[in-house]
Amino acid sequence: MSAILAATDSVSGSLGAVGYGLAAIGPGIGVGLIFGNGVQAMARQPEMTNVIRTNMFIGFALTEALALLGFVVPFVFP
Amino acid sequence: MSADVVLASEGGGCHLFSGCGFPAPGAEIFIFDPMFHIGPFEVTKPALVAAATAAIVIAFFWAAFSNAKLVPSRIQGLGEMGYLFVRDQIARPMIGKEGDRFVPYFMTLFFFIWMLNFMAFIPLIQLPVTSRVAFPALFAIVSWAIYMTLTFKRNGLVGGFRNLAVPSGLPGWVYILLTPIELLSNVIIRPFTLTIRLFANMFAGHMLIAVFSIGAWYLVSPSIIGMASATASFTMAIVMSAFELIIQFLQAYIFTMLVASYIGQALEEAH
What we know:
The complex is a heterodimer of chains A (about 80) and B (about 270). By secondary structure, chain A is mainly alpha-helical. Chain A is built from 4 helices and no strands. The radius of gyration of chain B is 23 Å and the shape is globular. Helix content of chain B is about 70%, strand content about 0%. In chain B, a hairpin with a 2-residue loop joins strand 1 (about 35-40) and strand 2 (about 40-45). The longest helix of chain B has about 45 residues, at about 175-220. In chain B, strands 1-2 form a two-stranded antiparallel sheet. Chain B has helices at about 5-10, 45-65, 75-95, 105-120, 135-165, 175-220, 225-265, and strands at about 35-40, 40-45. The interface between A and B is medium-sized, with 15 and 18 residues.
C-alpha cells in the first residue's frame, strides 16, 4: 500500500488512464473467455447456435459493465 | 467533416508544429447550452433530438401497422421483420410462452434506444442521445419498476422476496452469504448497471470518434509525417464509426434482452 502511495507521488500524467488500464484487465480476460467458449460451443453444436449466442451476449454484457464502470469513474471522481 | 472537426477548428485552429498542444476532447463535448425555454424547462440539443427520434419511431410504426393488410406492403414488411426479431430473438427465448404479452414494451425499448444511439450518424446532429445519462437512466427506472411490480404481483410479498433473494437448490449455509448479495444485486445493482452499460458505451464510442477526428484535424500540417498521421487518424475515425454502428445495435439488443431476462425471472414459478 505504501508503495502505491509512493508511486502516486512520482507518477506524473493521467493516473485515470493508468487506472482504467488496470481496470480493463479483468473484464478483458472475461470477455475473451466468454466469446472463446461461445464460439467453441457453437462449433460443437451448431444446432444450438441461437441459444448459445443469446446467453453469450448476456454474459458479455454483464462482464463488459465492469470495464465500463472503470471508464466512467474518472469522469465522476475527477 | 464531422461536427467534432468543426468544433476543433473553432477552438483556435490548433495544428501540429503551430506551437499548441493537442486539444483533447473531454466530457464538455456532451454538454450543451439550452437552445430555448418551454415554461421552466430548458430545452437542449439532446432533448430536442430525443423528441424528434420519438416522432420518427412513432411515424415509422404508424406507417407500417396503422393499415395492416394480409399481404404486407413494403413498409409493413419491414415493420414485421422488426417485430419478429424482437419476438423470436428476445421475448420468447427469455420469457417463454408469456413473452408475447411484453413484446410491445420490448419493441418500444429496442427501437427507441437503437434510434437514439443511431443519431450519432445523422449529419449535423451527430450525438448519440443515450450518451446523456438521463436517457438510459429513465429506461432503466421504468424497466426496473415493471420488473419489481411483476415479481411481487406474481409471487406475493414473501414469494417475491424469495424470488429476488433466495435461489433454490443450494446447501443451507450458502444462503447466509448469498441472500444479501442476491437482494442487493437484483434490486439495486441491476438498474444501475443497465444505465451505466448503455450510457458508458455510447459515451466512450462518441469520445473515441471525437478523439480521432480532432486528432486528424490537429495533425494536418506542412510535413509528410504529419499528413500521413492525419490520414491514418481519419481512417481510424471511419473504422471506429463502422464499429460503433455495430455497437449501437448490440447495446439496444443487450438492454432489451436483459430487461426481458429480468422479467422472465420475475415470472418464473417458485420451485
